[in-house]
Amino acid sequence: xxxxxxxxxxxxxxxxxxxxxxxxxxxxxxxxxxxxxxxxxxxxxxxxxxxxxxxxxxxxxxxxxxxxxxxxxxxxxxxxxxxxxxxxxxxxxxxxxxxxxxxxxxxxxxxxxxxxxxxxxxxxxxxxxxx
Amino acid sequence: xxxxxxxxxxxxxxxxxxxxxxxxxxxxxxxxxxxxxxxxxxxxxxxxxxxxxxxxxxxxxxxxxxxxxxxxxxxxxxxxxxxxxxxxxxxxxxxxxxxxxxxxxxxxxxxxxxxxxxxxxxxxxxxxxxxxxxxxxxxxxxxxxxxxxxxxxxxxxxxxxxxxxxxxxxxxxxxxxxxxxxxxxxxxxxxxxxxxxxxxxxxxxxxxxxxxxxxxxxxxxxxxxxxxxxxxxxxxxxxxxxxxxxxxxxxxxxxxxxxxxxxxxxxxxxxxxxxxxxxxxxxxxxxxxxxxxxxxxxxxxxxxxxxxxxxxxxxxxxxxxxxxxxxxxxxxxx
Lengths: 131, 334
What we know:
The complex is a heterodimer of chains A (131) and B (334). Chain A has one domain (38-130).
């Protein structure tokens, strides 16, 4: 191989390695979503889990809830802070979306940002969309 | 022999612990900002220096290894890929080498026959090729999937790859196939070095260290995704800060992530100094990337200098009288 080809290949490789840097320079970068408490959630100010635990673990919690409801008909979750919640994603006042009314902001903003595609909404619907 | 793998294993554990405890002790900026930047710099500079060094070294002659019939008489069928005489043949050969590890496919093993003859037997051993192929492609998918942390919005191609990798839809968060294949293949490559006496004999610490490092990276990554869980949005805020040169250290990220990031940084920084440089080296293998046309074309050593030569004619001119006197045959008699 001639040196010209090696240097060309090397330049392509360096550009590829640096792609995260220049890609964000040539495209507009979306800012990280700012978590915002709205509606009933703003007044209640007490969630099922602590803030960071909730951010990291909510998918496992929902998975456990689904199993508890579907297999054991166990529908009430008593949180560490003593409050009880309805183990439901979208049904009733005391469910996830009952309190956090805005699915766009509460679910989608972070999921879109981190390219997470949960299959919740293949069965569930956003209560707001039905009306 | 045991220190050959126990020292690298201990090193990987210690490196992880350094970052894990260091980040917990308020050194998040060091392990999250300083080290990654330095690692990328070391990787690129080291890689370029190494390849330019190889470029400067001499490859005066055609030395391709031939794995098929050379081009010769018109009625003898040539193998144009395994013994190429044109650059297009070389191109196909290199393409197959780089994307399908063709040389590894020919891997054989030697063993003594178990019956009384006790002859040495060479047999085809395909599993090194299978594991290497699985490992490299799974690693490629994992690296490409990580672009979701360095781009916002995430490009459709990366999302498509994630969907394809998570096609089995098992568990929550959904299982990625690459997350199974990568550690399984890496463990096979490790087991080969540990349990095959002949491979173990020639395995050094520098063979084990990258394997343990990659296994450590995979273990921490898998743990973060499937078991202990981390705040992904917070982490992406941090990685995006790194690639847009406005680094931030958000709260609540956890030591495990710093351990993962530190091991990746070590891998990057160590890469140019290690056997892992076969990433660049495979392109520069003179036994693969040269056409075998030494019989069709004359290749002159590029640094041949003019040597003062003494031809037979000159020799005879010089000694003719003495040669005739001694009765030796000469071409020209005066």
